[in-house]
Amino acid sequence: MIAEILHGIRTIRDEQEKYGQALKFYEQSLSTLKNYYSSAYIDIVCFLHYIMKALTMLDTYYPSYLLRITSSLNYFGNILRKQQKLDEAFDVYKRALTILEESFGSDHTGWTPTLTNIDSIGDIYKDQNNNEESLNYYQKGLEVRKLVYPLYSAKVAYSLNYMALAIVEKIDPDNYILIAAILGNIGNTLSSQKRFEGAFDFQQRSLNLRKTHCPSEYASVALNYNSIGDIRYQEDKYRDQALEFFQKALTIKEEFSPTNYTFIALLLYNIGYALSGQGKYRFESLCGGKYSVYSRQVQ
């Protein structure tokens, strides 16, 4: 209801040719929808219509707002993708990419959102099992990243891993050990960028693949659990889950690799840290009393 009222005010201001105010109310309505209705997959048809109308207006009056409009297009593209409306999502992402390329070219201002669109289009092709086109867009994203970022940055690593995943899934889809490793690498890269939701998803996919197809890869499974625990710990709202994952990793290492003292020590440290994050400042007995962890308040 609030979004509809704001959107109505935006329409009135538009008709009055008060474009600055129209844009302000448009952004408020969009923000309201994102905050309160994102999980319900709102009806976006009307808003897409007005975004396209706004684009025409912006070309003349407010070219500096193009980044905000393309950001909104990406938001709607993400909704369409979650609804499995892949062709529509592709059109929205492609429109945003065209705007950015035509408006900014080699200007640094538009590089980051351009990469977002390139990756999103590659993801759409991957969802459609069109690995060749998906790989083309990941390659394009890599070339842009090479221009924008240092060669060995996390952003380049992310693009390289995505390309590797597309290649392996295309030519050797049963190589579960390699695919799981690449998924874990992508998760680690996303975590280093503090993109924790995506990092968790990739680590979970890697873990599930190893548990299903590579159950003897105990060391790698333990690494997955530790990585997931680390991701959850860095997200304040999920810190309580971190302890569970660290303890699972420790149980596996203790059973299958009890002399790997370095990694066991790391896990014990992580468990102590997770306990401190929960406000539990005491000794904790682990692995049948073999280890005791004392957690203290983290300053």
From TrEMBL:
It comes from the Eukaryota. Keywords: Repeat, TPR repeat. TPR repeats lie at residues 70-103. Signal peptide: none annotated. SUPFAM superfamilies: TPR-like. It holds the Pfam family TPR_10. InterPro entries: TPR-like_helical_dom_sf, TPR_rpt. This is Tetratricopeptide repeat protein. It comes from Adineta ricciae (Rotifer).
